[in-house]
Design a protein that fits this description.
Strands 3-4-5-7-1-8 form a six-stranded antiparallel β-sheet, with helices on both faces. It has a two-stranded antiparallel ribbon with strand order 2-6. The chain is built from five helices and eight strands. The longest helix is centred in the N-terminal third of the chain and has 21 residues. A hairpin with a 5-residue loop joins β3 and β4. The protein has one domain: Cell Division Protein Zipa, Chain: A, CATH 3.30.1400. The chain is α+β, with helices and mostly antiparallel strands. α4 runs antiparallel to α5.
């Protein structure tokens, strides 16, 4: 993959993390997070929990202050992309191309000061057809296309996931994002991402928030759907 292409992939993932920095504040409590709810047949962690340790500016106390976030960390942006470009990467690659015209983001925040475990995350991604791939994050792919329809990143530093630590993995939230133009029509991609986000929110016991970190409402859904329709109209092939 060309360095410029890798940079755009990193920037897209970075946007999700930047949004999460404002979504979650510096934790106000000193104790460990509440244990994750377990359901019958669910995998139980046999090793100790790993607390997210991120750096970020404090925000007002409230329901979103239990996860400490920071900069992009290992999701390198700008000059750091050159260093990562020299490292081995997964087989799936996004083709070279211009920067995205738009990025649409949704957030999932764990409810009641709980955490999202690796077992829950894997269940959610399998249930919604996402695959672990480029940048060590999850992607929804479509047949014959290398560019993802949408992706899901960790809302906690360093933004990606470690496939060897699912038994001990915990996070307070995740971010789903899609870049336009993509392999599908904008409205189709949005419908696909929203359906996946809603399914994930059920599995992860997480609240669905919009890109401005507000509860996702029917009004906001209608607004985004109209924006996606307008995008498709503007970019309809001639003839």
């Amino acid at each position: 993959m060309e360095t410029s292409t890798l940079r755009w992939i990193l920037i897209i993932a970075g946007f999700a993390i930047i949004g999460a920095i404002f979504l979650f504040g510096k934790p106000g409590r000193k104790g460990a997070p509440k244990a994750s709810r377990r359901r019958p047949g669910e995998i139980q962690n046999s090793r100790g929990r790993r607390e997210p340790t991120l750096h970020g500016p404090p925000e007002d106390e409230g329901p979103m202050t239990d996860l400490e976030l920071g900069d992009q960390g290992e999701l390198a942006i700008g000059e750091d992309a050159d260093e990562q470009a020299a490292q081995p990467a997964p087989a799936r690659r996004a083709p070279a191309g211009p920067p995205p015209e738009e990025i649409v983001t949704l957030f999932l925040l764990a409810q009641d000061n709980r955490v999202i475990t690796g077992a829950e995350l894997l269940q959610a991604t399998v249930s919604t057809g996402m695959e672990f791939g480029d940048m060590n994050i999850f992607h929804r792919l479509t047949d014959g296309e290398e560019k993802p329809v949408f992706s899901m990143a960790n809302a906690a530093k360093p933004g990606h996931f470690n496939r060897d630590e699912w038994n001990t993995f915990e996070t307070g939230g995740v971010a789903l994002f899609m870049a336009l133009p993509g392999p599908l029509q904008a409205l189709d991609a949005w419908d696909s991402m929203l359906a996946a986000a809603r399914r994930c929110s059920e599995i992860l016991y997480a609240d669905l928030l919009d890109d401005e970190r507000n509860p996702f409402t029917r009004q906001r859904e209608a607004q985004i759907r109209e924006e996606m329709r307008e995008y498709d109209r503007r970019n309809k092939p001639a003839g």
